[in-house]
């Protein structure tokens, strides 16, 4: 749960706060747990929501792409195999991404959310989620190449 919060908020102290707040929320709302999903999944959703709310409080700004012509061309067709970088370098690169990019790429790649779920949770459109994801992959490659000097 800590890793989930950390990937979204981007630092240890905020992740610890979100974890503590999430456990308190779960305890207070235990009677609303219906058992339709595993308890871990239910708790993880609370952690994700609390973490996203914190990022939003920091005035997270997502770029709207509704009027851009390239929205239709943004797809998953680009090969993700070139993202076979070393895990530690990728983690460091993700931590250097701007909040919006880091949240979307973390939810999509690491937490297994689809773009429809991301859009719903973040209050953005599905196309904005896809755009943010593709831009975050491009930015991550730049960070790995230019800042972290990874030649992979």
What does this structure look like?
Helices cover 62% and strands 0% of the residues. Mean pLDDT is 81; it is low at 67-85. By secondary structure, the protein is an all-alpha fold. It folds into two domains: 1-59, RNA polymerase sigma factor, region 2, helix turn helix motif (Rna Polymerase Sigma Factor, Chain: A), CATH 1.10.1740; 65-152, Orthogonal Bundle (Arc Repressor Mutant, subunit A), CATH 1.10.10.10. The protein contains seven helices and no strands.
Number of strands: 0
CATH class of the largest domain: Mainly Alpha
Give the CATH topology of the largest domain. Answer: Arc Repressor Mutant, subunit A
Question: Overall mean pLDDT score?
Answer: 81
Pattern of helices and strands? HHHHHHH
Rg over CA atoms, rounded to whole Å, is 16 Å
